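User: Second chain of the day. Same drill as before.
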Amino acid sequence: MINAGEIKKGIIIELENQLYSIVDFQHIKMGRGSAQVRLKLRNVRNGAIADKSFQSGEKFSRVRLEHQTVQFLYKDGDDYNFMDTESFDQIVLNRAVLGDAVNYLKENTNLELLSHNEESIGVDMPITVDLEIVQTEPGFKGDTATGGTKPATVETGLVVNVPLFVQQGETIKVDTRTGTYLERVG
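Assistant: Same format as last time:
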């Protein structure tokens, strides 16, 4: 059991016999009332987002997850196919289960598959991924390294704001927690 003060993004808790991933949280102190915690939760089975408020003293049942190393193979419509690197079994996860992770999945990438009671509920993404820019407008003369930004579409379809000096065909490092550009790679 964890209390409201120990809550962090990404923790998976069980409420009303459903598994939820904490997307965001806020501690709120009312004038004379007791403090509350407002949680933004994502149902790990169907991807639905819900906002719920709890008293700060409430306790939550933390879910223990099994981890196994898998390799992302390919996308087929809304289904994403992975292979267990030890047994070579194939695992198929739906887009709703994966959530924002689909924006960072590249073929042949190794990840940690998260399971609960032998049910696959998602993947644990690395903090950063390297993605190639497939489309962006060229920078113009006079643009500086510290100037503005421009949108760039990367190989997974995600649109990232990048500095004006970054060009199409270059590889960039992207933070998977926020979806923001960090730096050019090589």
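Residues 20 and 115 are 13 Å apart (CA to CA).

User: Great, on to the next one.
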